[in-house]
Amino acid sequence: MKVAEKDNAVRDLLEEEYRRSRDVLAALSEKAARYPKGSLNVRKKAYKGKEYAYHYLVAREQGRVVNRHIPKAELPDLRRQLEQRDKCRKEIQAYRKRIAYLEKLLQLPRRGGEPYE
Amino acid sequence: MNVLRTVHFPPPISGLLRSLSEVGFFDRSLLIGSWVMPLYQELYGARYLLRTLDVDFAVHLAHPQKQMRADLERLITDLGFIDFMGAEGLQKFTAGGYEVEFIAHRPGGREIAALAIREWNINALPLPFISILIDFSETAVLDDVIIRFPIPEAFFVHKLIVAPRRLTVEKREKDLEQCTALKYNGPQNLDKVICYTWERKRGGPSGEFEEAASAIV
Fold first, then answer.
1. Is A110 part of a structural domain of the chain?
2. Looking at the domain assignment, is residue A3 inside a domain?
3. Cβ contact (<8 Å) for A27 and B92?
């Protein structure tokens, strides 16, 4: 069976990219963990012919679903943080995919999804 | 003015280059690293296909008291990049798997942590010899966007100087491979750049360097 000759320049580049991707994944995971967990939920209530909207942050804490009321003043900041967290998660997914691909290419033991130590 | 017709950057990077150009970042600062190689390929025929996914910019340091010219942190995050802290508090940005960082010239031999750049509201990694790239640069137009980058001779000399100082063999080899790709272009200003680095006497160029440069050219 013919075996392709190892190209060190390409392999080195891939290894460097692998290390860089793991570093970025670690930094992004750390950043994502600092954002609030859960999603925003709106409950609408009618009272004396008027409709009122109350915002809650719904998150799972120690196996229980917890609804925390969010005052109107805190809403824009929370929305921005949740958007940032989602962007972070999306980027984390992209890096996880890349790491898994590089591990396959470089024939490294799979560590893809686990946090970087 | 050089016009680039065949160079294509991936969407997050082309958008970033456009925005940086619009705020005047490329008036004195420049694109560096392996992403300059496609520009050299089109302009000078230096063929080098390997590219890393980190995009580096060398920042020209204005007076520390200079007013903020543009908020790059905001501008870059508004483009969809996520900012995060790398090692030693260095600010980096990522989008679509590409990583963006800023590098500034570090005079002297002492290692210092990330450098806050008030003019652009970012922080940059201070590294020695970056002034070689900043002081010898040119511009090109790509889809109406003006991009500043080091002249190939400066890029070549910079790589030769930093290669022996690299901590990893891979990076050293990559530097020298890029030099090899550039030698076919026949840099015309090489002597000028060598003299410049020589005169600065910042612990960089040595007799060995001069020999290495002559051997490659």
1. no
2. no
3. yes
pTM of the model: 0.81
Task: Kindly list the domain boundaries of chain B, sorted by start residue.
Answer: 2-216
Residue A41 lies in a domain: yes
- The string of pLDDT tens digits covering residues B2-25 is 888 888 888 889 999 999 999 999
Segments forming the whole domain that contains residue A60: 9-105
Give B168's DSSP letter.
S
CATH architecture of B2-216: 2-Layer Sandwich (3.30)
Token digits of residue B61? 């340091």
**Cβ-based neighbours of A70, under 8 Å, separated by 6 or more:** A40, A55, A56, A57, A78
Q: Tell me whether residue A80 is in a domain.
A: yes
Q: Which site among B170, B171, B172 would you substitute to test the A interface, given the most A Cβ atoms closer than 10 Å to its Cβ?
A: B170
Q: What is the DSSP string of chain A?
A: ---PPP-HHHHHHHHHHHHHHHHHHHHHHHHHHHSPPSEEEEEEEEETTEEEEEEEEEEEETTEEEEEEE-GGGHHHHHHHHHHHHHHHHHHHHHHHHHHHHHHHTTPPP-TTSPP-
Token duo for residue B76: 């870059």
- Asked if the interface predicted TM-score (ipTM) of this complex is over 0.85, the answer is no
Cβ–Cβ gap B84/A28 under 8 Å: yes
Split into its structural domains, chain A has a count of 1
Residues of B with CB under 8 A from a CB of A: 50, 52-54, 80, 82, 84-87, 92, 94-97, 99, 168-171, 173-174, 177
Return d(Cα B48, Cα B55) in angstroms, integer: 16
Q: Are B79 and B19 in contact (CB under 8 A)?
A: yes
